[in-house]
Write a structure and sequence with these properties.
Blueprint lengths: L20 H20 L4 H19 L4 H8 L7 H8 L1 E5 L12 E8 L2 E8 L5 H6 L7 H16 L4 E7 L6 H5 L2 H12 L6 E10 H5 L6 E5 L3 E3 L3 H8 L6 H8 L3 H7 L4 E3 L10 H19 L4 H13 L8
Parallel strand pairs: 3-4, 4-5, 5-6, 5-7, 6-8
Antiparallel strand pairs: 1-2, 2-3
Helix pairs in contact: 1-2, 3-11, 4-13, 6-8, 10-11
Length: about 325
């Protein structure tokens, strides 16, 4: 099944993760029974309710016991809503802005002005593609230096007009190609981090899918960082970690456990500020519900941050990141 660029909604047919199959099969059985009941005018309400209770129990059992690797798989689900899906669902009057004014327009990074319930914001985020053509066009959501420089240009533009920034993170990492390195990939990411500590407007960061390494952190400094329930955020991907430690990417599930990259892990470590619950079975099953949760959190956070004066805002932003991690002097 091929999707339009900004397709959204309830999209779960055709693609299943292994642990999803029992749930999807039972859902289909319930749907078939309802159709049969209506078509043949036979009363099957008791049987349908019994299956629904079984489905609810099965869903709770599976999703309350997901491994870290299974959550990583959910974050990569091809039906999961991407940045432009969220922007379309939570905002109006979105105007996308292009180019870094130095080299090119990196389509792995999108951004522009929009309104959330009438409140102007600057959106910045990584964008993946649905089909092969879109994936290549968006470079699988992996930004080049010009992508980070475009984001930086939009940060400054938001500051100029005193408009808060909303960042949506979803990337398997910054692009590691030779051309990207030649054009200063590390410098672009480092400068963005430095700049974001100085931008004088509120910054809300929402991790909606994958959050890998400097690729995520290059647009990931904010006053408040929230994370969807089945997203992940780490210094390296499980496959990358496994390739380094065991020289075999097949050990990615083991690496995922060691990295502690899920939302509960990061909440415990003080890396994120809040976990946003996803619809039953994940955001890919109900884009609208996931977007409603994200929208509600963004508006509440902006209301909170708008009460801070600029000096306190910047001071608290810096202190937030200085508190992270531990070290011992020997």
């Amino acid at each position: 099944m091929i999707f339009d660029r900004e397709d959204n909604g309830n999209m779960h047919n055709g693609i299943q993760l292994d642990f999803e199959r029992p749930i999807i099969e039972l859902e289909k059985k319930i749907s078939d029974m309802k159709d049969f009941s209506m078509g043949e005018n036979i009363e099957l309400q008791h049987e349908i309710e019994s299956l629904q209770k079984k489905l609810d129990h099965l869903r709770d059992e599976i999703y309350s016991n997901l491994t870290r690797w299974q959550k990583v798989q959910l974050s990569r689900h091809p039906r999961r809503p991407y940045t432009l899906d969220y922007i379309k669902l939570i905002s109006t009057d979105f105007i996308e802005l292009h180019g870094d004014r130095y080299f090119a327009d990196d389509k792995a990074v999108v951004g522009g002005f929009g309104r959330i319930d009438g409140r102007p914001v600057m959106f910045v985020g990584q964008q993946k593609g649905r089909d092969t053509k879109q994936k290549l066009e968006r470079n699988f959501g992996m930004a080049h230096p010009e992508g980070y420089r475009k984001a930086r240009r939009l940060f400054y533009l938001a500051e100029k007009f005193n408009i808060p920034i909303v960042i949506l993170i979803d990337t398997p990492g910054a692009y590691p190609g030779i051309g990207a390195e030649e054009r200063g990939q590390a410098e672009a990411i480092a400068r963005n981090i430095w700049v974001m500590f100085q931008i004088k407007v509120p910054i809300v960061v929402v991790i909606i899918g994958e959050g890998a390494s400097g690729g995520a952190l290059g647009i990931g400094i904010g006053d408040k960082v929230v994370m969807l329930e089945y997203a992940w955020y780490s210094v390296i991907s499980p496959e990358g970690c496994a390739a380094i430690l065991w020289r075999d990417a097949a050990n990615a599930p083991l690496a995922a456990e060691a990295l502690k990259l899920t939302a509960p892990d990061l909440m415990e470590l003080g890396i994120i500020d809040k976990i946003l619950p996803e619809p039953p079975n994940g955001a890919h099953r109900d884009h609208a519900a996931a977007a409603h949760t994200v929208k509600k959190e963004i508006l509440a956070t902006l209301d909170e941050l708008s009460k801070e004066n600029v000096e306190n805002l910047l001071k608290k932003r810096l202190e937030k990141y200085r508190r992270m991690g531990e070290y011992r002097e020997l």
